[in-house]
Q: What sequence folds into this?
């Protein structure tokens, strides 16, 4: 990193930093945002304050960065450690998955639906530890729920297991995630086929994470083939979102296999589907749309070893309409990916800013997930001296040599 106070810079100096990284003069930058050179100079010197969200968004767009990187990345807030709290929370979810006796109190389907919606909301904001804490009670409530409408009951149960599979995968509990995803598919099969297909998305991810990309590819392609709409223009957006998500999961598996042709074909196909779905929607809690497709292009490029292409792709993706509509947890995940790319290219400043930006957006995503922890550790090892804010984050994570 560049110095001991790098991330304690006021917002105007952050604007100057990123303007310099983009090789923009004050005049060119001013023209891009419709301001005068004098205005830019006053902002960068701290004479003029930046306190309007709309102006910050315009500046971030002109600089091709997420707006979180202009804001104070790490403030005085709670410290989420990946120790006993995480292990205990995961252990309680495992216990809930293993039990099959009736719950002490059987909640109504409406109550379970509300709990599932709340759980997906927690996931969107990257509140992983909170979600893990809520899951045991939700999973207990799924046992022997009474309902005259089997379709509605199956939908609630499948969505709950998908939720469990997704968060368990994110924190590296892959065996439990596999079990939850398999149950979600089993419940949906026959009653609500699109739910079984939706459950194949986290299941494909778990299989990839466990080192079986070929099996993940075949699973997602097979389910997507069965779900493919005969006429996309007349298909329901819910249906298309699941279909597109399967294509993206298959593309990531193909990237792990080094199959560039399949990656390009699948992502391009998903991009076409995303255009039909639109921006800013979240059908079946997939966040599927053009911005998500852009993010997968970046992740696939990284998996294929095309690091420079991934960085360029990320910086372009953040300027496109709708990127800010992606859930905070998803954007934090993208920042973790691009931090690894910056570090690979030797840009440790960029890597540090991206990691701190991810921590500001969704702390649990970087503090509890294996990928986030590994990236922080890698950047810290190579930074001499390390940025104090990043070092503090490493210390909170319990990483050796953080200070």
A:
């Amino acid at each position: 990193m560049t110095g001991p106070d790098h991330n304690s810079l006021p917002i105007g100096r952050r604007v100057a930093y990123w303007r310099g990284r983009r090789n923009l003069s004050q005049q060119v930058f001013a023209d891009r945002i419709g301001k005068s050179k004098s205005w830019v100079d006053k902002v960068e010197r701290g004479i003029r304050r930046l306190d309007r969200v709309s102006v910050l968004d315009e500046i971030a767009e002109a600089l091709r960065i997420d707006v979180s990187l202009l804001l104070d990345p790490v403030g005085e807030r709670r410290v989420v450690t990946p120790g006993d709290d995480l292990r205990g929370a995961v252990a309680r979810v495992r216990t809930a998955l293993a039990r099959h006796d009736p719950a002490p109190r059987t909640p109504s389907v409406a109550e379970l639906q509300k709990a599932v919606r709340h759980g997906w909301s927690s996931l969107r904001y990257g509140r992983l530890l909170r979600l893990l804490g809520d899951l045991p009670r939700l999973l207990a409530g799924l046992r022997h729920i009474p309902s005259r409408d089997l379709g509605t009951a199956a939908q609630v149960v499948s969505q709950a297991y998908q939720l469990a599979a997704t968060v368990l995968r994110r924190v590296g509990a892959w065996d439990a995630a596999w079990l939850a995803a398999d149950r979600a598919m089993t419940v949906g099969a026959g009653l609500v086929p699109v739910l079984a297909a939706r459950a194949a998305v986290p299941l494909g991810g778990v299989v990839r994470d466990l080192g079986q990309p070929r099996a993940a590819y075949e699973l997602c392609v097979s389910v997507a083939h069965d779900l493919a709409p005969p006429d996309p223009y007349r298909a329901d957006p819910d249906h298309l979102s699941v279909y597109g998500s399967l294509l993206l999961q298959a593309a990531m598996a193909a990237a792990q296999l080094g199959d560039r042709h399949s990656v390009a074909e699948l992502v391009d196909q998903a991009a076409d589907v995303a255009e039909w779905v639109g921006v800013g929607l979240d059908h079946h809690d997939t966040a599927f749309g053009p911005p998500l497709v852009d993010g997968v292009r970046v992740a696939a490029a990284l998996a294929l070893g095309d690091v420079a292409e991934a960085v360029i792709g990320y910086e372009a993706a953040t300027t496109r309409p709708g990127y800010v509509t992606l859930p905070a947890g998803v954007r934090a995940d993208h920042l973790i990916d691009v931090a690894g790319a910056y570090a690979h290219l030797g840009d440790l400043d960029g890597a540090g800013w991206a990691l701190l930006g991810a921590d500001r957006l969704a702390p649990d995503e970087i503090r509890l997930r294996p990928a986030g922890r590994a990236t922080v550790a890698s950047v810290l090892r190579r930074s001499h001296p390390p940025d104090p804010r990043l070092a503090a984050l490493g210390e909170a994570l319990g990483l050796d040599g953080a200070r």
